[in-house]
UniProtKB/TrEMBL annotation:
This is 2-oxoisovalerate dehydrogenase subunit beta. The gene is bfmBAB. The keyword Heme does not apply. Its cofactor is thiamine diphosphate. Its EC number is 1.2.4.4. It is an enzyme of class 1 (oxidoreductase). Residues 4-186 form the Transketolase-like pyrimidine-binding domain. Pfam families: Transket_pyr, Transketolase_C. GO terms for molecular function: branched-chain 2-oxo acid dehydrogenase activity.
Length: 335
């Protein structure tokens, strides 16, 4: 085991995959120069080399700033036998390639009767909470959850970042991975040997008996901190990180809520039609009789992200807000 940052774990997964399979290639804006820190061979380019030196320009390739073109190129490369990893940098840039994502990448296997597979991974980073303004702060994973044919992952720990990415690269269908930039510097133990975490399997971050707290992506650390505070008051909170949003580990969530009888869902995306809404509906449909209190969702409101730091910080769920929600569903008086 080694201590790695979230971003370092992504780089390790990419390097392992490229060393293991010459069909794996990386394309994207500025990937040759390791601008975002996941295509470097080590701390020093001169001593250890970067991906460009390690694998050459046939396998690590810069692209023009044209997201629709990048996604289309990767889709075509995947159909002809390569296994591309695409670095699209900001998640907000995915909008420029919606036709390729929705009409080509997602529908290809169905439209052509399974004659071609689409083994391609699209990485993007959610720069919310960093005062990057409305055009760069999006958390658009719920939009893509609504598109059949796409798998969606949102790792929240360094170990998951590496293991889920390796599994995504192995997938013969397109996978979109959404990384919360606030997690990039998070460090944790990561296995040195190659390993995969299966898509569609949730992680129970901590076990509990009184309330189920489902936390997504960058919300997971705050959820754990809130659970710690409730534990001091004698409330046992079970924290579940779905890790994969499509396919969603519904059994893990339903089993937990059936046992605790209470549910709080927290995520950084907008409220309407978000992942929290989908999980809440699922629980209401399947284990309504087990509920002892109304479900509570904590999300960002349905409005654009302001550039002002003081205003933006009010947009997202906070530890205090999660604590208040947990106290509400368990019947504790407000602190």
């Amino acid at each position: 085991m080694s201590i790695m940052s979230y971003l370092g774990a992504i780089g390790a997964a990419q390097r392992e995959a490229m060393e293991a399979d010459e069909r794996v290639v990386i394309v994207g804006e500025d990937v040759e120069a390791n601008v975002y820190g996941t295509t470097g061979g080590g701390k020093s380019r001169s001593s250890e080399g970067d991906f460009l030196q390690l694998f050459g320009r046939n396998r690590i390739r810069n692209t023009p700033i044209s997201e629709e073109g990048i996604v289309g190129i990767a889709a075509g490369a995947a159909m002809t036998g390569l296994r591309p990893i695409v670095d699209l940098s900001y998640s907000s840039f995915l909008y420029m390639a919606m036709d390729q994502f929705v009409n080509q990448v997602a529908k290809n296997r169905y439209m052509f009767g399974g004659q071609a597979s689409m083994p391609v991974v699209f990485r993007s980073a959610m720069f919310y909470g960093l005062n990057t303004g409305a055009h760069h702060s999006d958390r658009p994973y719920p939009m893509f959850m609504n598109v059949p044919g796409l798998k969606i992952i949102a790792p929240a720990s360094p170990e998951d970042a590496k293991g889920l990415l390796r599994a995504a690269i192995d997938s013969d269908d397109p996978v979109l991975t959404f990384e919360a930039v606030k997690l990039w510097g998070l460090k944790g133990e990561v296995g040195d040997d190659p390993f995969r975490i299966p898509l569609g399997v949730a992680r129970t971050v901590r076990e509990g008996t009184d309330v189920t707290l489902v936390a997504i992506s960058g919300s997971v650390p705050d959820a754990c901190a809130a659970a710690d505070r409730l534990a001091e008051e004698g409330v046992s909170v079970e924290v579940i990180d779905p890790r994969t949003l499509v396919p969603l580990d519904t059994a893990a969530i339903l089993t937990s809520v059936a046992r605790t009888g209470r549910l709080v869902v927290v995520e950084p995306a907008h409220r309407t039609c978000g992942a929290a809404a989908e999980i809440s509906a699922l629980v209401a449909e399947e284990v309504f009789d087990a509920l002892k209190a109304p479900i509570v969702r904590l999300t960002a409101p349905d409005m654009q992200i302001p550039f002002s730091p003081s205003l933006e910080q009010q947009m997202y769920p906070t530890r205090d807000g999660i604590v208040a929600a947990l106290r509400r569903v368990t019947g504790l008086a407000p602190a």
